[in-house]
Amino acid sequence: MEIDLITAEIDTIHQKVNLAFERKDMAIYMSQFDDGIRYTNADATVYDRKDLVYQTEKYFKKTKEISTTYYRIKSSLENQIFTEKIARKSVVFEKGLMFAKKKTVQTEEIFNWKKIDGNWKVTGIEVVLEEKY
Q: Cβ distance 32 to 122 under 8 Å?
């Protein structure tokens, strides 16, 4: 029962953050991440919050339009940490000289969430699979 309530809360956050991602709203997008976030990219590059802000701003600047969807593969709760593995599909139109170039990115990501000051925050993300086409 508790995991169902947590999952519902996390889903609400995902919806809000995905919309912010699509609108390229940095403030709302970054609000989901704890100050101590560790983001591990598919190539094993690790970013802290400062690096993640920089990389996200750079990504937003080169995109014209983004749409993203996800579904949860599995989740668990252990020692007050909610862990979920999600599959995400994003369709991105990157800015070009005359036309936007369409790119599809599919990932599997492991999120670690912790309730901090009454709010769920992401403390870690690991991209375990990434395909671009």
A: yes
- For the chain, helix (H) and strand (E) counts, in that order, are 3, 6
How many angstroms separate the Cα of 90 from the Cα of each of 18, 55, 71?
A: 10, 17, 12
Tokens found for residue 45:
């590059």
- Give the number of other Cβ atoms within 10 Å of residue 33's Cβ: 20
Give every CB contact of residue 96 below 8 A, 6+ residues apart in sequence: none
pTM: 0.92
- The closest alpha carbon to 10, from 54, 74, 89, 60, belongs to 74
Token pair for residue 124? 């870690």
Helix (H) or strand (E) holding 28: helix 26-30
- Neighbouring-strand partners of residue 63: 94
- φ, ψ (nearest 5 deg) of residue 125: -135, 135
Strand, coil or helix: what is 82?
Answer: strand
Contact 37, 124 (CB under 8 A): yes
CA gap 126, 128 in Å, rounded: 6
pLDDT digits (tens, 9 = 90+) for 42-67: 999 999 999 999 999 999 999 999 99
